Amino acid sequence: MRGCVYAQNCFPICCGIDVHKKFVVATVGTTNKSGVTDYQTRQFSTFTQSLLQLLDWLKAHSCVHVCMESTGKYWHPVFNILEDYCDVVVANPKYVKGIRGKKTDKKDSIWLCDLHKHGLVPSSFIPPLPIRQIRDLMRYRFKLINVKSSEKNRIQNSLTVSNIMISSVVSDTFGVSSMRIINHILDNPDDMDFEVSSMLHGRMQDKAETITKSINGNLTKPQADKMRVCLHHLENIEKHITDIERVVLGLAQPYLPQIEIILSLPSIKDVFTAIAIIGEIGSDMAVFNSSKHLCSWAGVTPQNNESAGKKKSVRISRAGVYIKPLLVQCANAAIKSKKCPYFKNRYDQIKKRRGHKKAIIAIAHTLLKCIYHMLDKGETFNFELYKIDSKPKQTYASQITEEMAIRYLQTLGYQIPDMPNTT
């Protein structure tokens, strides 16, 4: 609400922009001292030259407060032009949705202007440009890793349908020894009686006979051609991932202190995991009101859905589609950490009552709260705060006294006669 009372004009001069792919419709609302608002609406193309004209038009009206709906990726060009001069609020569509049947482009822009005029539009989190660049590249890296996994699955499927069951013997089908055997089979499809032991490293020599039996299959030419294409694609993807990582490391240099802080967590050891977290939440925690606000934004807290005094679904929201899986992976590593057993103990406590999924989300929630406070205070993870006593305190008496035994029997329904005083 930006500290405004309902129906009070927070911004006497503001603009609402209805964004589309080919054009935008902007409405500037100017409110006088009597509370009467005068609207001026214009349409601009989404080409850069036309968007610069939009900026000049806003300057002519002394308008620095702008609100627009986050429509796909179409809001990015407008935001890039207005970012330096205007205070731009990018709103979630569910907060500014118009009434069905009374929607036009002009009415939508006026509606956005009216809502923003009274301070009724909560702003979405838009990090600074350097963070946005890191976020974009790290999300692309995430997609490439998914494609890489898909190609590995296709290669594994080709081996399976060809009766080559090497995956049942080795722990990693795409390890060095396994790939030597697979490449030999692809290069020499007619040679099925080759010596396997020379391709295996020392610890796998004991499995040479079993591996020889597992590769006794029938690899057809179409399957072999498919595997060659997949392997070539896999090599290209790995090269592209390396190129992306090199660029990301260059962009992340200004944020090395924050990355080191995140790497101090017991579950985060990969520098790119820390960079991905920085790319999603930024390095300045002042943009979030509290750690609870950050956790809600990331989608690791239950929703509020109560009506008539009855609580309905309290499932976590769909927010944080990129950071939530990342936090869950870190949580799975945290519960296995022997350096800080707190997370495992907390996970076991919740799992008994609520199950694995809710327990792992709770650990992800705890990790994100840790990251918030660590970045906010500029401190590394303090293990002493999560130290567990090796000798837990007893919550029950070591010995049962006579008085406790009598009281227990009475709760079961027995009548205990008065005992004679022997003293």
From TrEMBL:
Residues annotated as domain Transposase IS116/IS110/IS902 C-terminal: 260-347
Protein's name according to its UniProt entry: Transposase
Biological processes annotated in GO: DNA transposition
UniProt-listed InterPro entries: Transp_IS110-like_N (IPR002525), Transpos_IS110 (IPR047650), Transposase_20 (IPR003346)
Molecular function GO terms recorded: DNA binding; transposase activity
Residues of the Transposase IS110-like N-terminal domain: 15-160
Superkingdom to which the source organism belongs: Bacteria
